Amino acid sequence: MNDSDSSPVIFEKLRADNGAGIAIARLNVPRTHHSLSLEMIDLLSASLSQWAIDPAIALVILEASGEKAFCAGADLHHLHKTMVAHHASEQRDDICANTYAFDFFSREYRLDYLIHTYPKPVLCWGHGIVMGGGVGLMSGASHRVVTESSRVAMPEITIGLFPDVGGTWLLNRAPGCSGLFLALTGAQLNAEDALFAGLADYKINQAQKSQVLVKLMELPWSSMARDNSRLLGNTLRSFAATNLAHGPLRENLDLINSLCGHVDLAEIVSAITSVSKDNAWLAKAAATLAAGSPGSAALSAELQRRLLHCSLAETFRAELVAALTCTARPDLTEGIRALLIDKDRQPRWNPATLTEMTSNWLNGFFESPWAKKEHPLADLGCP
User: Fold this and answer.
1) What would the pLDDT profile of 251-298 be if each residue is shown by its tens digit?
2) Contact 90, 199 (CB under 8 A)
3) Could you give the residue ranges of the DSSP H alpha helices within 219-311?
4) Is residue 1 over pLDDT 60?
5) Which residue ranges make up each domain of the chain?
6) Dihedral, CA atoms, 154, 157, 160, 163, nearest 10 degrees?
7) Residue 144's beta-bridge partner residues?
8) How many Cβ atoms sit within 10 Å of the Cβ of residue 276?
């Protein structure tokens, strides 16, 4: 197989020198920067599940064709159509009635959880754009590589969503208050900051990728996942850059901790949006927050607060309820319209300000339509 294949995900199996199998899943929709569709999610889930129990497979590699992106997030165009139809239907108040949205988010989260708990080492090569759903795919891999061109972000506030795909769990574990800052601003991280934030493990130059693969073919893979994980880690470390410079997130962490140190979200937003324009990275982050959905800001902060001590599985279950509620409310539809459909970049957010929100409005994102045992992701984390 090659990258000219029309399949949105290309699957390949290589045989290492000692006969062990190396399985590759290659995202293959470069025109959309490999944005995830439901078809891609299902293809990945099926192959990863099969490889997990295949004794011949020692290692799985997640990558993408081309040089611009690993994955820019979700394919939002079809989701937008289904939300418009749902909002016009008699079932508009039922967050489960949009069956496409339900299938997309529940299967995407299940795939992400599978990667987080995969029984074999998974190498994700996160070159170029890694955003939203791309972070969801990469973050669970046991070995996460970024390159000199990687740009990692969760910019969901720009479309009226929140950092999902386990993003609440991930950002709650970032240094200091940086997780809240990243959720509110969608700030882009370079490779160094992705490492600092715990979203990646190694920085390796893209030009070395072929050399890494050659080395992987030579390793003495075995049937023991722990040994294979050690082999992979040692190999990646031998190629990884050292003595890395500090990225803007790390350089500004003390200031970010101060900006996000207020108890009241409105004060945090005011502090961030008032930062000096002399710092280009912070100024861009502040501008994104100022233009983004106030509802998304409130929801992102509340998710991080409520789920601080929750497991990854519990986080995915809560995020599914919140995501489906977003599809039934106006901001996500409006945000996608303004950014991707009409492209006027003039979203009309509802509520338009933080002061217009009520506790009942916010609590609605946490009201599950299912009993605990009936939740679609109830089995996550269960033996």
Assistant:
1) 999 999 999 999 999 999 999 999 988 899 999 999 999 999 999 999
2) no
3) 225-239, 248-251, 253-259, 265-273, 280-291, 294-306
4) no
5) 9-374
6) 40
7) 124
8) 9
**What tens digit of pLDDT does each residue of 141-171 get?**
999 999 999 999 999 999 999 999 999 999 9
Tell me 364's DSSP state: G
The helix-helix angle for 265-273 and 280-291 (nearest 10°) equals 130
Taking a C-beta distance cutoff of 8 angstroms, is the pair 57, 94 a contact?
Answer: no
- Is the confidence at residue 198, as pLDDT, over 60? yes
Interval 312-322 mean pLDDT: 98
Distance CA 163, CA 325 (A): 14
Mean of the per-residue pLDDT values for the chain? Answer: 96
The SS3 of residue 341 is helix
Over range 348-369, report the average pLDDT.
96
Question: Whole-model pTM above 0.90?
Answer: yes
Q: What is the CATH code for 9-374?
A: 3.90.226.10
Tokens describing residue 16: 């290492």
Q: Give the torsion sign (CA, 197, 315, 304, 285).
A: positive
Burial bucket for residue 218 (CB in 10 Å: 0-12, 13-18, 19+): exposed
Q: Computed from CA positions of residues 136, 54, 18, 24, in that sequence, does the dihedral angle turn out positive or negative? A: negative
Residue 36 pairs in a beta bridge with: 74
Helix (H, G, I), strand (E, B) or coil at 89: coil
Q: Residues in the chain, how many?
A: 383
User: How far is Cα 277 from Cα 213, in angstroms, rounded to an integer?
Assistant: 43
